[in-house]
Design a protein that fits this description.
The protein is mainly α and about 210 residues long. The longest helix is centred in the middle third of the chain and has 23 residues. The chain is globular and about 55 Å long. The N and C termini lie far apart (about 55 Å).
Length: about 210
């Protein structure tokens, strides 16, 4: 049987441990042991546990950042509703899978502070999706598909905040089930667009209005 490359094994082990014991308790030593390599080998591929955490988010969870970056670079593609619905869908899945990994940090104040400091050093953090979505909405605002007086930062915060809340808000309900992600994303975006959409936001990518 073909053995996976060391980097892949490390990411797989880190993802599994972060899900099962939480980020705070998943040490690099334990991750290396689960990956079948030395701790020194782990540091050949990743600078720190924070770096490893960011790579797990980027490579093992629904990809949100590339979607946001691509849309911000080329505003006017597709319809605003379709684009935001896909963003909301991926964001909801991302937070659903990342929340159990990171939640344990909030139980240990000093560890969370060290973790936040580590994320700052590598230019990452949970604020990044909000800034990226704000950049996309600002680009669409310049293209006329978002109202000129709309607060794009507030809109980005509302959309992603709702997606993040979906990850934990329904655990105590009788069924313990979250709202279906596709329906949730579509309803969220339709409501948001009622407040920020510009006159041509419903145009198709070829410039014709949507029916």
């Amino acid at each position: 049987m073909e053995t996976k490359p060391a980097r892949v094994r490390i990411l797989d082990a880190a993802h599994e441990l972060m899900l099962t014991v939480g980020l705070a308790r998943a040490t690099t030593k334990e991750i290396a042991r689960a990956a079948g390599c030395s701790e020194a080998a782990l540091y050949k591929y990743f600078d720190s546990k924070e770096d490893l955490f960011v790579r797990v988010l980027a490579e093992r969870l629904p990809r949100l950042t590339p979607l946001l970056s691509g849309l911000a670079a080329q505003p006017g593609q597709g319809t605003l509703e379709e684009n935001l619905t896909e963003i909301a869908r991926r964001a909801a899945l991302f937070y659903e899978q990342s929340f159990p990994i990171a939640a344990s940090l909030y139980a240990e104040t000093q560890l969370k502070q060290r973790h936040d400091d580590g994320l700052r050093k590598i230019g990452s953090g949970p604020h990044m999706p909000i800034e990226s979505l704000d950049a996309y909405l600002s680009a669409e605002q310049a293209a006329g598909r978002v109202r000129a007086d709309a607060d794009t930062f507030a809109a980005a915060s509302l959309l992603l905040g709702a997606c993040a809340q979906r990850a934990f808000a329904y655990d105590a309900t009788e069924s313990g089930e979250r709202p279906p992600v596709d329906t949730f994303a579509a309803r969220l975006v339709r409501t948001l667009l009622g407040g920020i959409a510009g006159g041509n936001s419903m145009a198709q990518s070829d410039g014709r209005p949507r029916p």
